[in-house]
């Protein structure tokens, strides 16, 4: 009987897998009138790197009590990229932002490499083209738009919603595009990418983008106190030069929590009568997954769960808001291998005062024994563990501490990288129209989620694909000459000339310079793989 049941289960899994394979148009799902499917507001959570095993561990750490997310679990999401079984954050998040599978490491551009099945390979002309995003389409529809995260603003997940690049590593280009994107609200880390300076993250083009923000009517906040006292709805709040501190480590006087930023963002954006689109990323579950640090994974998952509760509370009170939560991928391959009771599991986590990141700058070879005892209750290090800690102090201490804690808690990891497993889908919709209803199955593609979000927001991204950004060839077809002035390599400028008229389009900015005037455009000018892309209103300046 057991073998028969196992066979039935495997058959079911295989059927679900095959049903989830396609990336074309999904079925319309449960029959509901359009007005019941659409909502005014959407809050999309992306839990970077969070696996269902991470969720399971977090639940047991808090005594097996249900998490907020448990009530909203609706299915599984397949996360592969156009060129890989295992995706990175850029391709994973781009699928949600654009509704397209893209190549790993690229930021919301069509793939120029397709090796996975079920994905149509674009023609040479269609490859590496900028793809419209949910945020861009929502903004053009008059909705409020916002991004909340705990990483740097240029990190892959926030980047894919408000920029386009051939590589996620083009941080300074991405930062400039985001500043000129027209997004209403940005809360997170990464202020160093906006200002010139000598550090690696600082700008090399000499521009202070915080001045650009202020000149365009944004409030610029740098502390939690600034954010809590803010009276404007148009705001950029960057609360650290790099990423924000992990939730367990942050100073509440300086940095807001993910839940606080989520609540404030939703309240501010709700002032827009047309509704809003807000993306919230729990950024650092992934980082602790890479370092195999179970304390960091659990506490960051708990921080996300509190933020999700804040969003659900807002949605239920508002009555016209959907909340969707997905992961871009899983990280670390966490496993619970302790056959004993929770007596060995919980103390490891309840004694922890900081994550391994929170020890940086405070722990050294002379005090590590005292620090590890004070921070984690580790008073019984073996000689092998002591040697590992000493080595980690010179290299990377986080995975060493994670390994010591994991060994005692019965938690192991299969990798320090991303994994290809399906991730959890959590959803709330006021009329109970869910991504699984849209897709007609319980195991959905990440692109299904992206298309579902377009549907419930009343957006048509495919219609924008040939309108939002136009290739330079469209201008040349009008008889214009298009060149790129790279005399200032940090500030390239697209120069369009026709007859006596010359238009200058600074790359990554949404402005046109012509006849002594500065004209604001709907989208920034892009330079992707040496190919120029301009906004439709820039093209309209050429008669």
Automatic annotation (TrEMBL):
GO terms for molecular function: alkaline phosphatase activity; metal ion binding. Pfam families: Alk_phosphatase (PF00245), Cu_amine_oxidN1 (PF07833). Its EC number is 3.1.3.1. Its cofactor is Zn(2+); Mg(2+). Keywords: Hydrolase, Magnesium, Metal-binding, Phosphoprotein, Signal, Zinc. The keyword ATP-binding does not apply. Mg(2+) binds at residues 48, 155, 157, 281. Residues 465-537 form the Copper amine oxidase-like N-terminal domain. Zn(2+) binds at residues 48, 286, 290, 328-329, 418. Binds 2 Zn(2+) ions. Binds 1 Mg(2+) ion. Residues 1-26 form the signal peptide. The active site is at residue 89. PANTHER family: ALKALINE PHOSPHATASE. Belongs to the alkaline phosphatase family. This is Alkaline phosphatase. It comes from Paenibacillus chitinolyticus. The lineage of its organism: Bacteria, Bacillati, Bacillota, Bacilli, Bacillales.
């Amino acid at each position: 009987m057991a073998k028969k049941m196992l066979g039935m289960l495997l058959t079911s899994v295989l059927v679900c897998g095959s049903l989830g394979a396609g990336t074309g148009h999904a079925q319309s799902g449960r029959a509901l009138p359009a007005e019941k499917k659409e909502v005014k507001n959407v809050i999309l959570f992306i839990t970077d790197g969070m696996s269902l095993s991470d969720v399971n561990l977090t639940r047991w750490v808090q005594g097996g009590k249900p998490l907020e997310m448990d009530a909203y679990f609706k299915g599984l999401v397949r996360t592969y990229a156009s060129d890989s079984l295992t995706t990175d954050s850029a391709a994973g998040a781009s699928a949600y932002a654009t509704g397209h599978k893209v190549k790993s490491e690229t930021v919301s551009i069509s793939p120029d490499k397709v090796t996975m099945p079920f994905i149509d390979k674009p023609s040479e002309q269609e490859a590496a083209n900028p793809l419209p995003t949910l945020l861009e389409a929502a903004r053009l529809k008059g909705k409020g738009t916002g991004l909340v995260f705990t990483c740097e603003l240029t990190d892959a997940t926030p980047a894919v919603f408000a920029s386009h690049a051939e590589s996620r590593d083009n941080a300074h280009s991405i930062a400039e595009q985001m500043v000129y994107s027209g997004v209403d609200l940005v809360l997170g880390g990464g202020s160093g990418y906006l200002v010139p300076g000598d550090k690696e993250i600082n700008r090399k083009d000499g521009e202070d983008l915080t001045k650009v923000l202020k000149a365009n009517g944004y409030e610029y906040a740098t502390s939690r106190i600034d954010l809590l006292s803010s009276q404007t709805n148009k705001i950029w709040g960057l609360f650290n030069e790099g990423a924000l501190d992990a939730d367990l480590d942050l100073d509440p006087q300086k940095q807001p929590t993910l839940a606080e930023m989520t609540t404030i963002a939703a309240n501010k954006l709700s002032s827009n009568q047309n509704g809003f689109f807000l993306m919230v990323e729990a950024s650092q579950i992934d980082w602790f997954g890479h370092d195999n640090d179970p304390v960091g994974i659990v506490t960051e998952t708990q921080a996300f769960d509190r933020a999700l509760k804040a969003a659900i509370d807002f949605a239920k009170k508002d009555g016209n808001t959907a909340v969707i939560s997905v992961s871009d991928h899983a990280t670390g391959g966490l496993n619970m291998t302790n056959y004993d009771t929770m007596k060995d599991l919980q103390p490891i986590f309840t004694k922890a005062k900081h994550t391994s990141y929170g020890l940086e700058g405070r722990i050294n070879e002379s005090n590590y024994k005292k620090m590890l005892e004070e921070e984690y209750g580790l008073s019984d290090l073996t000689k092998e563990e002591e040697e590992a800690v000493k080595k980690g102090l010179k290299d990377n201490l986080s995975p060493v501490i994670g390994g010591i804690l994991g060994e005692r808690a019965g938690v192991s990891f299969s990798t320090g990288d991303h994994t290809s497993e399906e991730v959890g889908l959590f959803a709330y919709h006021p009329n109970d129209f869910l991504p699984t209803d849209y897709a007609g199955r319980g195991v959905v593609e990440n692109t299904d989620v992206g298309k579902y979000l377009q549907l419930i927001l009343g957006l048509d991204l495919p219609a924008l694909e040939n309108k939002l950004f136009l290739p330079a060839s469209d201008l040349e077809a009008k008889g214009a000459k298009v060149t790129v002035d790279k005399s200032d390599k940090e500030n390239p400028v697209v120069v369009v000339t026709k007859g006596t008229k010359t238009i200058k389009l600074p790359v990554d900015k949404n402005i046109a310079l012509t006849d002594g005037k500065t004209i604001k455009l709907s989208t920034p000018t892009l330079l992707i793989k040496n190919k120029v892309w301009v906004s439709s209103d820039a093209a309209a300046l050429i008669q």
